[in-house]
Amino acid sequence: MKERLIRLMRIINLIQSKPGILARELAERCETSERNIYRDILALHAMSIPISNYGHSKGYAFISNFSMYPLDWTEQEALAFSMLPSVLDQIKSLLPEGFDSALEKVMGVHKKEKSKRVDILQHVTDIIQMGTPAYRDEEGGASFLYDIIQASLSQNTIRTVYYTQSRDEESERDIDPYYLVPRDHRFYLIGYCRSAGDIRTFRISRFRDVKLLDETFDRGEFNLKNYMKNTWSIERGREQIRFKVRFHASIARYVKEEELFVKPKLTPQKDGSLLFEVTVNHEREFMNWLSQYGPEAEILEPKAYREVMRQKLDRWRALYE
Q1: 202-239: string of b/e by CB count within 10 Å (b at 16+)?
Q2: Residue 300: pLDDT above 70?
Q3: Which class is 145-227 in CATH?
Q4: Which of 12, 66, 217, 267 fits 275 for a cystine, CB–CB 3.0-4.6 Å?
């Protein structure tokens, strides 16, 4: 059984290193019969290893981009594999020559890949340059972006201390970090808050501490696209507000270039203006965005928000008078 397991692993490596290898060659390299090779291929098929025979004299190859490298091990799998020498120590004399060196090479690949992933993640984190809060104490503030990205990739729960601005207080929370979302020069974390028992959105700059836990999570059927549907930026609501706005011809082409998180309906008008229609689930961020265009943007519908904008303009005028 032990010898066959080693042979199966060698067959996988041989097919990966030489696509199109024949059964005869596999038998020679594995020092066995072609009949055993055919049986081994059937066993690999049963283990869902996608090996295909491309016909007479064309040999075996993997289907699609399947490969055994890099080693996509979990930490538990790596630990279990590293314990093999101590487990097999009592039968070491029965192991084939080269087993120890093969094991060392496999573990070396795993450690190299792990180190490489850490380096890449650190480089990516260093490259991302976001804004900082306008007010900071003398000690500045730590950035937990690296830890959060690492936890999201490895699907580890994080234990955090989070500052809630609306209540002006800090609280400890265990969060399953699902996705990082950039919005308006900020990063937000969308994940399952175990304290609240619900999916929540957290602003990265409001984390005061982040620690990775050994506990892992599964995103299940969570769909980010559905979760953020009709959300103008990051603030979600439960309404469905259909805005209809006319943009003046002088800025219509600029509005068309806007990179938005929701898809509006754009209808060019004969006079060069642009009719902009969009449904959002919360109005505040949309109204703030619209305000930057001043009198070049006119809300047509809903009429209630025409009145909201008029009152806002009256307050501005009174302030500057």
Answers
A1: bbbbbbeebeeeeeebeeeeeeeeeebebbbbbebeee
A2: yes
A3: mainly beta
A4: 267
Give the pairing of strands 198-203 and 265-268.
Answer: unpaired
Q: Quick check: 37 and 11 in contact, CB under 8 A?
A: yes
What whole-number distance in Å separates Cα of residue 252 and Cα of residue 274? 6
* Four-way CATH pick for 241-320: 3.40.50.11600, 1.25.40.10, 3.40.50.720, 3.30.70.240: 3.30.70.240
pLDDT digits (tens, 9 = 90+) for 65-100: 666 555 555 666 666 666 666 666 666 666 677 766
- Kindly provide the b/e burial profile for residues 143-182, where b requires at least 16 CB atoms within 10 angstroms of the residue's own CB: bbbbbbbbbbeeebbbebebeeeeeeeeeebbbbbbebbe
Closest-CA residue to 11 (of 2, 251, 31): 31
DSSP readout, 33-91? -HHHHHHHHHHHHHTT--EEE-STTT-EEESTT--S-S----HHHHHHHHTHHHHSGGG
Rounded to two decimals, the pTM is: 0.60
Q: Do the Cβ atoms of 281 and 239 come closer than 8 Å?
A: yes
250-268 as b/e: b if 16+ CB within 10 A: eebeebeeeeeeeebeeee
- Average pLDDT on 255-283 reads 94
DSSP per position, 127-156? H------S--BTTB----HHHHHHHHHHTE
Q: H/E element holding 191?
A: strand 186-193
**pLDDT surpasses 50 at 138:** no
